[in-house]
Amino acid sequence: MNGTLILRLAVAIILLSHSVLGIFNNGINDFGNLYLNQIGFAPFGVVIAWLIKLSHIIAAILLVLNKYIKLAGFVTIFVLIMGIILVHFQEGWFVVGGGRNGMEYNFLLIIVLLAIMYPQGFAKSTIK
User: Containing domain of residue 43, as a range?
Assistant: First the structure.
């Protein structure tokens, strides 16, 4: 059994809950139309929003299956970094408490994904 199972399942649940809800409450289309299109991504905002959420769903499935972990991780980390740049950075660090809508949650997800992608750390493996 892989030592990252608990982390993979936790991140998969987060990615799925963050994505699937938007499918049913029009959140994905709203994010595309009311945010991405407004900040310069028009007329592609809705398409980009759907690609982001679909990438989360695919990454969640891959994390559960323990397949293509680095690919899923890199794509998700890219999305999270762009979320920090476009949305969360201007709100500061804290999600709640010392602020609102900050970047601390994305930062934590990035670190957890890196831990999943590199369970032995970043040290170069040696040939024996």
Answer: 5-117
